[in-house]
Amino acid sequence: MPRALVTAFALTRVCYVDSRRLPTSPDCYPEALPELPEVEAVRRSLEPWMTGARFDDVEVRRVGLRKPFPSEFRTRLIGQTVVTLARRAKYLLAVLSSTDILMMHLGMSGSFRLEASGHRENEPESSRSTMHDHVVFHMSSGAIITFSDPRRFGVMDLLTPEMLASHLVLPVLGPEPLSADFDAAALARACKGRRTSLKAALLDQRVVAGLGNIYVSEALHHAALSPYRRASTIATPSGAAREAAARLATAVKQVIGHAIARTIDPVRYRSARFRVYDRAGEACRRRGCGGTIRRRTQAGRSTFYCPACQR
User: Fold this and answer.
1) Is 40 an annotated catalytic residue?
2) pLDDT tens digit sequence for 198-246
3) Which of 31, 32, 213, 268 makes an SS bond possible with 262, Cβ 3.0 to 4.6 Å?
4) Which pTM value belongs to this model?
């Protein structure tokens, strides 16, 4: 495994470990709940070591996580090659040479740890794992990929293509925010006639896939739109996009794109990460605004916004 992987990198929920040391804590990241940028950063970190690689062995250390592992989980993985590693919303989807799809979700506390194949031989038995390491993939690429999940709300499942097509969640998801399918026109069509708030509409996974509370708040501030504004106001009665829809679609793409870049770069991740989220009482960062960020509860979740510039 290249020396570039020696550095411990905690911010994407993937920890890289060299042959000399383990992480000082099984909790490899500070965030309690992953959003789309964190999951995409995990995908990008795992992809070089999974795509094109074969499962040489799989350790399964419990009967399941949020739900039981499927029947013959280990047997169906061993010997299979990962054709592609994709992401849909907050799900990681590894398409296998058998045509099965390994579906993975981090849940609330899941993380992956990457180790070089010789690492465990050089560590004492007591240091090789933690009580929260539940699944270990030994890949032909030379990587050992360990899934750790203290709260066990994560998911690992094996789906056939038919099962994927009839999945309760995946087929009804809206477009990916960074895809060409998501633009002002698509957003306006989805919001046409909606009497719900703009924030609630963006959190609806049928409107756009994978957006969570943090980045919805950030995107609305970037677009200067109130989270309480009625969703239908960004579309004409016929469903055409108003100027506000264009601003919002652009803001979503910018916020998510920048968040992924920051998540991959630990220095950028820790500096000036959010403009409004968790900044209640601070001055609005929009130039010339002069307002103060407020925190309110909206549909049971924290909403951060500036009442002066978000209309």
Assistant:
1) no
2) 999 999 999 999 999 999 999 999 999 999 999 999 999 999 999 999 9
3) 268
4) 0.84
